Amino acid sequence: MSIDDPVKVAKEAVNLIGEVIKAAGDNPDVKEAGQELGKSALTITKTINNALLPLAAVNFAFDKARAYFAQKFLEDLSQKAERVPPENIVEPKASVAGPALQGLAFCHEEHELKEMYLNLIASAMDGRIAEGAHPAFVEIIKQLSAEEARLLSGILQSHGGLPIVEIRLTTAGEKGWITLQRHVLDLRDEQNEQPAESAGLAAMADNWTRLGLVEIDYAKYLIDETKHNWVEHRPEWLRFKQEYEKEQKKIEFQKGMMSRTAFGIQFARIVGLLAQ
């Protein structure tokens, strides 16, 4: 395939999306529901034209992305933009919408990430909050897995600090400790509310810290002692007790706190995890 071929495919996708948007704009039912859909459609079309074409140079399975943008994107984004009064719809900044559309093309089949991208684009189209749609938010979503996005949703919705612990092994008569498990949270199975493990949680927590979304501090902890009652029921704790605890060795945990940063709160609002 020559470099001209993917460019042609991308242009055809843009033209097809334009036809879909035009058809929606001509539909009286849609006009009645949206009133200013024409303005929204024009904004979306310009956004796609400016941002989608660079994807043509990327060697990946573009057919799925083209089908998504042609068949589902307008509907998905329109649902997100319903909250925006017609008079407040603005053209999103290219620095946000362009990379967001490109990111969406790669992960539109992963629900949690797709929702973040769509909400980010919709926020960038809302003149009331568009300034809060930081270009760095696109890069943050790109550096999250779907599992991270799911877990992070609950964490960024927590208004107070979350209790977090580090599980350690100590030896009688010796100073210091061996860290057995970092960044343990009270994760629960969504189906039965029983304690559940996520093998990559510690690395995820480090990633969220690296991205500036949360802070983790083991010099701070919640005063209410009951907030850590869950620790000794965790599968990690029980497993380490059985494996490591001997006469001179003891399993302990260091209390800490995970807190949202101001940047994390702004991110959560713009990508739809928190109400505006």
Radius of gyration: 24 Å
Overall mean confidence score, pLDDT: 83
**Beta-strand percentage range:** 5-15%
Derived from helix and strand composition plus strand pairing, the structural class reads alpha+beta
Order of helices and strands: HHHHHHHHEEHEHEH
Number of helices: 11
The largest pleated sheet is described as: 4 strands, antiparallel
Terminus-to-terminus distance: 46 Å
Low-confidence stretches: 29-35, 55-61
Shape call? elongated
What's the number of domains? 2
Strand numbers in spatial order across the main sheet: 2-1-4-3
Properties at a glance:
276 residues; alpha+beta; Translation Initiation Factor IF3; 2 domains; 4-stranded antiparallel sheet
Précis, in short:
The chain has helices at about 5-25, 30-35, 35-50, 60-80, 95-105, 110-125, 135-140, 145-155, 200-210, 235-245, 260-270; strands at about 160-170, 180-185, 215, 250-260.
What would you note in describing this structure?
- The chain contains eleven helices and four strands.
- The longest helix is centred in the N-terminal third of the chain and has 23 residues, at 4-26.
- Helix 1 packs antiparallel against helix 3 (37-51), helix 1 runs parallel beside helix 4 and helix 6 (111-124) runs antiparallel to helix 7.
- A hairpin with a 6-residue loop joins strand 1 and strand 2.
- With 276 residues, the chain is an alpha+beta fold.
- It is elongated and about 75 Å long.
- The protein has helices spanning 4-26, 28-34, 37-51, 62-81, 94-107, 111-124, 136-142, 146-156, 201-210, 235-244, 262-270; strands at 162-171, 178-184, 214-217, 249-260.
- The relative contact order is 0.11.
- The chain has a four-stranded antiparallel β-sheet with strand order 2-1-4-3.
- The chain folds into two domains: 4-142, no CATH class; 153-266, Translation Initiation Factor IF3 (2-Layer Sandwich), CATH 3.30.110.
